[in-house]
Amino acid sequence: MSDRELEDKPGFWAKKISELEKRRGHAAEMGGPDNIARQHNNGRLTIRERIAGLTDVESFREVGTLAGTGKYDENLKLISVTPATYVAGSARINGRPVAIGGEDFTVRGGTSFGAQRRKGGQGGYIEDLAHHYKMPLVNLIDGAGGSVTSAKRRGFVVFPGVDGFERSVELLGEVPVVSAVLGTAAGGPAGRAILSHFSIMVQGSSQIFAAGPPVVKRSLSQTITKEDLGGPAVAVNKGGSIHNAAETEEEAFEQIKKFLSFMPQNVWEMPPVLPVDDPVERCEEALLNIVPEKRTQSYDMKKLVGMVIDSDSGFEIRPTFGKAAITMLARLGGRPVGIVANNPKVYGGAMDADAARKQIHFMELCDTFHIPLVFFVDVPGFMVGLKAELDGTLREGMRAVYMAGQLKVPTLTLVIRKCYGMAGMATCNKSDIDLKIAWPSGEWGSLPVEGGVAAAFRREIQAADDPKAKEKELEAGLRAYSSPFRTAEALAVEEIIDPRETRPILCEYIALAESRLKIGLGPRAKAGVAP
Amino acid sequence: MATTEVLSEVIGSVWRVEKSQGDSVAEGEVIMILESMKMEIPVEAPVTGTLSEIKVAPEGSVDEDQVLCLIES
Fold first, then answer.
1. CB within 8 A of A299, min separation 6: which ones?
2. How does residue A477 score in pLDDT terms, banded at 50, 70 and 90?
3. Between chains, do A296 and B38 touch, taking CB under 8 Å as contact?
């Protein structure tokens, strides 16, 4: 029979649909019940459970469902299909479209899948989807990337970059990119996780590194577990490779949803404004006495910020890394803002290299997605000491100053207490209106009076009968000039406010910034050479 | 019973120790005050329990992540 005659037979298309259903069934089975049970026993969800857990009910529209390796009998009749090691598609999160995909660890451990077109990872279909439809990308990472065995299948070894990061890099200037490391990530998937605006991993069940323990053993003769090498204690708290940690995968999904709730769909759109129950005119009485009168005593900056922003709107990025700085997405009058605050509880808020790196990333994030910045300033300067110098604090700190100078997004500077030196300069945007609002507790200068006096009046102090008393006397004399009101007289600080008025004032300026934001939409201009 | 190590978050010195070995402490209560970058840095109990050991003394210097005391809870 010819094809023509075959097609005319009743039931022909029904058979094709039945094959489609069969193939879809194989895709849904993933790596089979044994591998799925193993994944669950390791405390991990399957990729399909992950997508369902993160996205709105039945919103996932899969692409590449049928990709895989078919097994046929001698008559070329289909027996089964082992699905590709990546599941991808579009979905909605809180009603907003995203491109979402991730490795299927139950199929060959999520190793890269060779097909005509890649589904996921760098250069995969999922990145094209986010790029062409200008929507956020969510990477659910659970795989170790390529396998040396692929060289045997291919017949040659590939040059690095054949599945390059060009698109991944491009996306960082276009749409929000989120990566969740949900298993052990090494190689390409590990690199893919880093090329994101927000990354997260799960305590106990995920690790990330350039290469795992066997390679470390072979290269350096060091024996180390994968948790000690790339668990959150290393990758999040110390190395800062990954931004946040979550206790469970479900908590990771909640953090991803929260992060995306502040983000526009892309750099050409405004960040989403939400209705707000918290009155913008709310004046918090407790702000009046939150800063201790004694200058050497610290206070809880997170609590302070929490009293100003829309209630419960704060989402801290990197809470356990570079803790001298606090970086937080939040809302003021329903509008997204980025908050950079110094933490007086950690080295008096002095900027160390990690805090500078954290602040730089966050400023770039907010600048890229047109989210206004508010600095809550209490910074005595750059961190000092041998460790700080070994860490390159001066360079990292000046990079923060450089990046602050590149900001295009509206920026407000609120001085809570100290604002000294070059670290203080990293809290202002001189190319903006440069509005500096201070509390009466504000104090500033090139450097703090203490220490500064000892250096500037060394001879005079040494020559005195009582050097300690002389130093104190000189300090007291200079301190008389350091009243914030005297600076306000000279309009060197634009306004001093009652701390209780902070919320209404900030909400007002953030509302005023809207017109400015709207005319500045689009990709962020590339800066010159950062120091 | 679990033992919690209370670590120093800063390089600096011990200014004042507010509690003694054997004292019970509530979560958030100040155990000692360190001094660093000309600031007083209170060390608060991360958990409620009994101070089983204090490993530092006033004027002693401390390093980042150094164990300051132990709490049994």
1. A290, A291, A292, A344, A345
2. confident
3. yes
Interface test mutation site (partner B, options A300, A345, A471, max chain B beta carbons within 10 A): A345
d(CA A79, CA A81): 7
Whether residues B38 and A380 touch (CB distance < 8 A) is answered with yes
Write out the residues of chain A at the interface with chain B, using a CB-CB cutoff of 8 A. Answer: 296-298, 323, 344-348, 350, 380, 383-385, 387, 448, 450-451
DSSP-assigned letters across all residues of A98-142:
EEEEEE-TTTGGG-----SS--SSTTSHHHHHHHHHT--EEEEE-
**For chain A, how many structural domains are there in total?**
2
Burial of A354-369, coded b for 16+ CB within 10 Å and e otherwise, reads: bbbbbbbbbbbbbbbb
Q: Indicate the helix (H) or strand (E) that contains A396.
A: helix A393-406
What is the residue range of A60's domain? 46-68+84-262
User: Are A348 and B39 a contacting pair at CB < 8 A?
Assistant: yes
Candidates A50, A142, A53; CA nearest to A105 is: A142
Average pLDDT rounded to a whole number, residues B14-29: 95
CA distance A197 to chain B (A): 28
CB distance A229 to A213 below 8 Å: yes
Q: Which CATH number fits domain B3-72: 2.30.30.30, 3.10.150.10, 2.40.50.100, 2.170.150.40?
A: 2.40.50.100
Question: In the prediction, which pLDDT does A5 show?
Answer: 61
The ipTM estimated for the assembled molecules is 0.80
Asked if residue A167 has pLDDT above 90, the reply is: yes
Rounded to a whole number of angstroms, the distance from the CA of A345 to the nearest CA of chain B is 6
Cβ neighbours of A379 in B, within 8 Å:
none
Q: Residues of B with CB below 8 A from A380's CB? A: 37-39
pTM: 0.92
A113 close to A82: Cβ distance less than 8 angstroms: no
Q: How large is the average pLDDT for residues A239-258? A: 98
pLDDT in tens, A435-452: 999 999 999 887 777 777
Best B15, B33, B35, B38 member to test A by mutation, with max A CBs in 10 Å, is B38
Checking if the pLDDT of A494 tops 80, the result is yes
DSSP-H helix ranges across A145-248: 149-154, 166-171, 187-194, 213-220, 226-230, 232
The pLDDT value recorded for residue A144 is 72
pLDDT digits (tens, 9 = 90+) for A89-143: 999 999 999 999 999 999 988 777 667 788 887 888 999 999 999 999 999 999 8
Same domain, A291 and A217: no
